[in-house]
Structure formats: structure tokens, C-alpha cells
From TrEMBL:
Residues 1-29 are annotated as: Disordered. InterPro entries: NRAMP_fam (IPR001046). Residues 1-10 have a biased composition (Basic and acidic residues). Keywords: Ion transport, Iron, Iron transport, Lysosome, Membrane, Transmembrane, Transmembrane helix, Transport. The gene is LOC115043401. This is Natural resistance-associated macrophage protein 2-like. The chain crosses the membrane at residues 127-153, 159-178, 190-208, 235-254, 275-302, 340-361, 392-409, 429-446, 453-478, 484-517. One of its GO terms (molecular function) is cadmium ion transmembrane transporter activity. It comes from Echeneis naucrates (Live sharksucker). The lineage of its organism: Eukaryota, Metazoa, Chordata, Craniata, Vertebrata. It comes from the Eukaryota.
Amino acid sequence: SYKNKCKDSPQENGVQTNQYHTISPPLSPDIQEEPFSTYFEDKVQVPKAVNQTFSFRKLWAFTGPGFLMSIAYLDPGNIESDLWYLICLNTTHPVFLLQLAARLGVVTGMHLAEVCNRQYPTVPRIILWLMVELAIIGSDMQEVIGCAIALNLLSVGRIPLWGGVLITITDTFVFLFLDKYGLRKLEAFFGFLITVMAISFGYEYVLVKPNQGELLKGMFVPYCADCGPVQLEQAVGIVGAVIMPHNIYLHSALVKSREVDRRNKREVKEANKYFFIESTIALFVSFLINVFVVAVFAQAFYNKTNLDVNLMCNTTGSPHQDLFPPDNSTLEVDIYKGGVVLGCFFGPAALYIWAIGILAAGQSSTMTGTYSGQFVMEGFLNLRWSRFARVLLTRSIAITPTLLVAIFQDVEHLTGMNDFLNVLQSMQLPFALIPILTFTSLTSIMNDFANGLVWKISGGLVILLVCAINMYFVVVYVTSLNSVLLYVLASLLSIAYLCFVGYLAWHCLIALGVSCLDCGSRVRKQPAVLIEEQSEYNS
């Protein structure tokens, strides 16, 4: 627990706490009160297997949370990513980060938002909640618009964009209540959506026949020929598109759906192992699907002009040929134009299969985004509302700006904001990464499962890299503004952003063992009562 010699610490239930504390220790798993939750009333039972190193039956019991979480790595916001090695790199990082999230949920019985609510002071806690909500809104806009675009393509333009948004909102409400019939049924539905995506994008991958050698080279060799500021902005956006901040909060909550005796150290260790295996498999599947998508874009659209596509669409009788002016400018595609081009070059079936894949990706991602909003709001604000009331509120917060954009923009110009939304989510990453590293590094919270030196160094490097990328982007973005008023406003917001990140980083460094930052006091020591509780827990 954090100590501070600046003020005397009061006594609470026999345990010394700090009125001016940064983070205070929770009770041990033996006596800690289960936090209120409207989810996971009926947890999935895990089969008992004594003296067995690995069990497929147990892996099957733990399978589900990782795949629900991996859906967010397949949302339409990832479709326009075009740097192979960044996709590969950003799919390995989440394995590390999600292991931290799973470990926090399994060991403490609380998800990240609940731990933040109990440990951070009121003002930083509210700011943190608002930042995470902002990330969810940005992600939701991409996902819902992706669904609306898919419906527009499938209906040959008969369903307008705003109509697709309303349909997506409605069916999300319906699908989210599937867990009332059992959590495993909801997980099976998500598995079905992932299968639809794999088949749809896999079909497109086989159809366009990308160069396998160049594909492997692009995965593992970090290069970007003739890249400039625009491509750098896309690269920053990929970080936000793939490692979504609310995913960390979501995964720490989903692992609570399994029946694990947190007082039994062996069961906790076993749960951490199986969740790690399951998350790795889920992320590998999502990586393959992303490979299919990016390969289709790279092979089918590279080095083509608007005139090439216009002539081909005219030859095949496509109703969308007006999207491409008859000039020799380089073809620029998004998820809408991409489907049209596939239809012109490879037939109508390619367009419809592409749209089905986008619809499955958007629908599943908006459902997980809504789930994230439930846990984030419940945890940070300690709400005790009914599930329907919270779903209604969180969907209204996230969908309102999307509906306004859909009403006042046409489908051809909507996806231009994709890069901005990706960068917005990238800038919110520290508000998930720093807290998860902070709390999983505290022995007073994690007991024997606190991060070791390797995990602390690795986590610190990942956070440092992400923060450095974000700071660079902030500087580039602010200096590119032409308006003096916008320049001043962006500068003030940037200073506030960096100050809050610095505040969280300060607490994180103390948790990592830099005790000299803790008001120059002494090495942290746990109260005797907590030490006794830990001894009972460890035994």
C-alpha cells in the first residue's frame, strides 16, 4: 500500500490507512465483499481435475472471454489499416496486456473499473471514466457506421445510412439480452459471428490471390516506402484501432464469469494459465482475419487509378461507377468503396460477401463496445441500476453523435473520419494501460500474483512507447493547425492531457518500486493485519 509521511494516517478497522493516500489496499480475498454486479449471476462451472497439467475440458470451460474480447480487434476501424508489420506487432502486444487484465480480474474478483473506483481519488476517477467513455464512443461510431455501410451495400443503396444506424441500435439491444438465456449461448453467438467473418474475408483472400512472399515480408520486416506525415498518422491510428483502451476494462470483467475459488491459490494460478492460452488463440484468429482483410486491400486495389475502376464498373454494369471519376488519379478506397471495387472486378458475389463480413464485424464489435460501457459505468460510478436502464443510457451516449453524423453525411464521405477516430482511441490508451500496470504491480492487491521484474519492465516499455507516440502526434497535430484560436485551444487541451497522464504515471512508478517519488518517505510496508490475511490466503 502507498504510504505518505506528509500526514498522519488514521486507523480504519484496525488497519492503517492514509487519508491523503494515492492508492489504498483492498481487503484480502478471504474477507473482501463481492462488488455489486448485474452480470454473471450464473457463472460457468470449471471441471475439477486433480494432478493434471493440461485439460482440454478445462480449456473449453475457460473459452469465451478471450473471443468476446478479440471481436474488438476485428471492427471496421481496422479495415483501412495498411502497414503489415504494425498489424503483426499490435496483435502481439495485447497478449501481454490482456494477461494483466485477466490476472487482475481473477485474483481480486473485481474488474479494472471497480479497482479504479476503490483506489483513485474522486476527481481523477471521474476524469478517467470520461476518457474511457470517450474511447468507447469513438469506437462505437466506427462500428455502427460499419454496420450501416454494410446494410447500404447489401440493399444496393435502398437502406440509407441513418436507417442502418437505427437498425444496428435495435438489434444490438436484442442480441445483448441473449445472456439471459445463459452466458454460453451468448458466447456461441459471438463464435458464430467470428466464423462468418473468417469465411467471408477468407473467401475474398482466396479470390484476389495475394503474393504470399510479399505478404510474409510485410508482416515481419518494418518498412514503409515513400511514407510521409499522412502515413505516419495512419500508423498512429493503427495503434488505437488494434489496442483499444476499453478492451482492457472489458477483459478484466469477462474473466469473472468463470467459477474460480479465489481463496485457493492453485485454482487462481490455473485460471490465469487457461485464460492466457484462450486469449492467445483468440488473438491469433483475429490476426488471421485482419491478414485476410489487409491482403485483399493491398492486392486488389494497389496501383489502380480511378479510370481503371470506372471502366471496369461500366463494363460489368455496376450502379456505383459514379463513385470513381474518369481520371488517372490514384484510387483511394475505404470499406464502402472497397466493396464496390471488389464487386466490379470479381463479381456481385464478392461485394455481398464483403458486406456480410463487414456487417458481422460491426455488429459484434458494437455489442462488445456496449458491454464495455456497462462494466465501465457500473465500476467507476458504482451504479446499481437495472441492466436495461444502463444499456439504454450507455447506448444513448455512444449512438447520439453517430446518428447525427449519419444524418448530415452521405455514405461516400463518412469513412474519412476513420483515421481521426483511431488516433483519438490511441490517445486514450494510457488511461487503461497505466492503471492496469499500476494495480497488478501492487502486492497489497495481487498478493503472490503481483508483477515480477520482467513484467514490470515489459509493461513500462509498452506504456512508454505508446505515450511517446501519442506525444509526438499531439505536437504534430497542434503545429499543423492554421487557426490561432484552434492552436491555443489544442495547446491547452494537450497540456491538460499530458498533466493527467503524468499524474497516473507518477502513481504507476511508485507501484513499480520507485519509492523516492512517494513524498521522499520510506519503502512501502504493508500493515500487519494485511500481512496476516495474506498468509492465510497463500496457505
